[in-house]
Specification:
By secondary structure, the protein is an alpha/beta fold. The chain contains 28 helices and 27 strands. The strands form five sheets. Strands 2, 3, 5, 6, 7, 8, 9, 12, 13 and 14 form a ten-stranded mixed sheet that branches. Helix 2 runs parallel beside helix 5 and helix 16 runs parallel beside helix 19. The chain starts with a helix and ends in an 8-residue tail after the last helix.
């Protein structure tokens, strides 16, 4: 059956938000995996079920049912962990002795020798390129832990004569720490590859990161915690408990209320300032939440780092029964915590279980901007992606809670991880692909702005967004597609292109009617929009944002040679430009400068382009930013032989920023105000070749063009110039 037909039939028989819908979901789960589902039926869950069905409407309760069933669905079989279990022999572990460790790993222990050994072995196996020391604080163990020095070399061992409890054990171990950072690690853990590297990188790149914690997993691969939530009544949740850990909501860096003490890093200077774990919570429980609040009180952030993965055999140390043993202190210490932090809890925290969307990332005081594009920006592959990536960074700097949705809902790497490490939730995977409407409906009230890109993507979502959110709609068109395709037809005269301009015109005009604000990279597009829609709020928004423009270090043109063209070749105007240049313009240049070469640099060259390769024509394919900078420095002239297109050309802006003179066409120069002052503009094949040849040996001319181009970039593509345009639209005070 066609998927769309199936979905329509399903929605007819079981309407979204209806009781029929979520009872059908429960029945489906029961039939697909009856044993697993029945195992989750207990008195507590039945009570919750009855409570929610009495108190909540069908929509909200349906969401709870969906979340619960998703949470307890079987994990994919291919989710693998590096577990160290069932140890039968204890080979000697030898750690590298460090005189000046960067990190001190404090491990409090009380018996549980097998788990302690497994924990140490996992550290040795999965921690590299970091100078660290290990401090074992033995709380009067009675098992083989007493003889740990027989099995482990080059670690510090502190022994208590009497059992002090978890909290005092940690405090004592921290006093011996030599590192800039202290990590507290439970002995019933198994760390995964690069767990410490990612914690350290997060702390090093953010000077306001005070406390950072790992993603905790159960041994079966389920999520134990993706940061913690503290509610107004001082009760706490391990966010994401028992869910599938690869869901997008668990895989971005975010601020959280607290981090579990099972694996947490703190700056030593901050540890000393706070006084360590508050001993009012002796022997254990609530001390990690309290430390997080103390850190935040001093202006630092408490962060969850999803790339630091640690398996935690929860309950081994203290058990699970809160009515007896050490675990009983969980309730008692929660009362102490409430008394100490009541004012903060009342001011900054939600009622138990409410506003989970905000509570899970402490975003109650931030405005949310949702960015929608065709895919996660490949910022080093194409100009459009680079533009969006730069605006994402700007929105973060302005203090927004940024979320990103790619129309293909894929997770390309390293680009997705780059966004997640910046603190952006990226909506990817089959769930969001199939349920994005439900996600918008459920969370629409939290979305303040939507930043759309590309007409074919925007038209798919804009009506639904406007219907189910109160968000201000910002549309960035990059270029006018209908104008670009019209020019393409005028050149190619192909029948398949004939109807394309009208197709895009209808889409783009429809968007102009619905968006609150329309942006394009140059005044040319804005004038075109205003011609048909004079009432539309349309602005020029720069294609690039440069934090700093280097005015010095202009490489002598005497020491440069050859020509450079940079482009992503999946974009038809770029492929056409390269082919036209090589076939018609470059032969004329070779007659005057026989030894000259041209470098075609950029991702995804087609077979048509690759076939152009010769001794004088070098096709590199994709290169890194570092390599690309070298090309800008060693080549004498940048060529942009564009025959069609629309909008300001990012490749030319980037060339000007890199202080290389540009020869282009009237199409390439479009949108640059007084572009003739810093661009060499040609209108036909012969003129293009002549301007390249004449300027190639005129070093003074090249230097003047380079400096004028750089000044243009400085005046028009700085952060300040961008903020002058967009700040009022985002209700930001400068």
């Amino acid at each position: 059956m066609d998927k769309r037909l199936f979905n329509n039939l399903r929605d007819f028989l079981f309407p979204p938000g209806s009781k029929r819908r979520f009872f059908a979901r429960i029945l489906s789960e029961l039939l697909s995996d009856p044993k697993h589902t029945i195992n989750k039926i207990n008195v507590t869950n039945i009570k919750k079920f009855l409570y929610y069905i009495r108190k909540e409407d069908t929509g909200e309760f349906g969401n709870r049912i969906n979340v619960y069933l998703d949470k307890y669905s079987p994990l994919p079989s291919d989710y693998k962990l590096d577990l160290i279990e069932n140890i039968t022999s204890y080979e000697k572990l030898c750690f590298e002795k460090q005189e000046h460790p960067v990190v001190s790993i404090v491990i409090p222990v009380y018996n549980q020798w097998t788990y302690t050994y497994g924990c140490l072995l996992s550290i040795l196996r999965n921690t590299s390129d970091i100078a660290y020391e290990i401090i074992i604080v033995d709380d009067a163990s009675e098992d083989e832990t007493k003889n740990i020095s027989d099995f482990v070399q080059n670690i510090k061992i502190i022994r208590n004569k009497e059992n002090q409890g978890f909290l005092k054990n940690c405090n004592r171990g921290a006093k011996e720490a030599l590192g800039k950072y202290i990590v507290f690690l439970n002995n019933d853990t198994c760390v995964q590859k690069e767990w410490l590297t990612h914690l350290l990188r997060l702390m090093e790149r953010d000077p306001f990161a005070g406390l950072a914690g790992s993603k905790l997993l159960y041994p079966d691969g389920r999520l134990q915690e993706a940061g913690g939530i503290v509610w107004k009544d001082a009760s706490a949740w391990n966010y994401g408990r028992s869910d599938y850990p690869d869901k997008s909501e668990y895989n971005y860096v975010k601020e959280v209320d607290y981090i579990s003490g099972a694996s947490v890093m703190i700056r030593k200077i901050l540890w000393k300032e706070t006084g360590g774990f508050d001993e009012r919570y002796i022997p254990a429980y609530s001390e990690d939440s309290d430390l997080a609040f103390e850190v935040r009180k001093r202006g630092y952030k408490v962060l969850y780092q999803p790339k630091s993965v640690v398996v935690h055999f929860e309950g081994l140390t203290c058990g699970t029964d809160i009515k007896s043993g050490i675990k009983s202190y969980q309730t008692l210490n929660a009362e102490k915590f409430l008394k100490k932090w009541r004012e903060i809890l009342e001011k900054e925290h939600f009622e138990n279980g409410l506003e989970l969307f905000l509570a899970r990332e402490r975003s109650w005081n931030k405005k949310l901007i949702l960015i929608i594009d065709h895919y996660v920006p490949h910022y080093d592959k194409d100009a459009g992606s680079k533009t969006i990536f730069q605006y994402i960074r700007l929105f973060l700097e302005l203090g927004f809670n940024v979320k990103f949705a790619g129309d293909n809902f894929l997770r390309p790497e390293p680009y997705t991880s780059d966004l997640e490490q910046m603190g952006i939730e990226v909506l990817y995977g089959s769930y969001y692909r199939d349920n994005w409407k439900e996600w918008i409906k459920r969370n629409g009230k939290y979305i303040n702005y939507v930043f759309f890109n590309r007409p074919h993507v925007t038209i798919k979502y804009i009506d639904f967004i406007k219907r189910y959110t109160g968000a201000k709609i910002l549309y960035y068109g990059h270029d006018l597609h209908y104008l670009r395709e019209k020019r393409r037809y005028e050149i190619e005269k192909k029948q398949k292109v004939f109807e394309t301009p009208e197709y895009w015109r209808k889409i783009e005009f429809n968007i102009f009617r619905k968006a609150n604000i329309v942006y394009y990279p140059s005044y040319v597009e804005i004038e075109e929009v205003k011609k048909y829609f004079p009432a539309v709020k349309a602005k020029v928004l720069p294609v690039y944002i440069f934090d700093k423009v280097e005015e010095n270090n202009l490489t002598s043109f005497e020491n440069r040679k050859d020509l450079l063209f940079v482009a992503g070749f999946t974009h038809p105007p770029n492929e056409d430009a390269a082919f036209w240049f090589i076939k018609e313009i470059f032969p004329l240049i070779l007659t005057k400068i026989p030894d000259i070469k041209v470098y075609l640099v950029g991702s995804n060259p087609s077979d048509k382009i690759l076939e152009l390769s010769s001794d004088n024509i070098i096709i590199t394919g994709y290169v890194s930013d570092e390599v690309l900078r070298d090309y800008y420095k060693k080549c004498r002239i940048f060529v942009a032989p564009l025959r069609y297109g629309a909008g300001l050309k990012g490749k030319i802006v980037e060339a000007l920023y890199n202080k290389i003179p540009v020869v282009t066409t009237s199409v390439g120069a479009e949108g640059f105000f007084k572009g003739e002052e810093f661009l060499l503009i040609a209108h036909n094949v012969e003129e293009f070749a002549r301007k390249v040849v004449n300027s190639y040996t005129d070093m003074k001319c090249l230097e003047v063009l380079a400096r004028k181009g750089l000044n243009y970039v400085k005046d028009n593509f700085s952060k300040e110039s961008v903020l002058r345009v967009i700040a009022s639209d985002l209700d930001v005070r400068l």
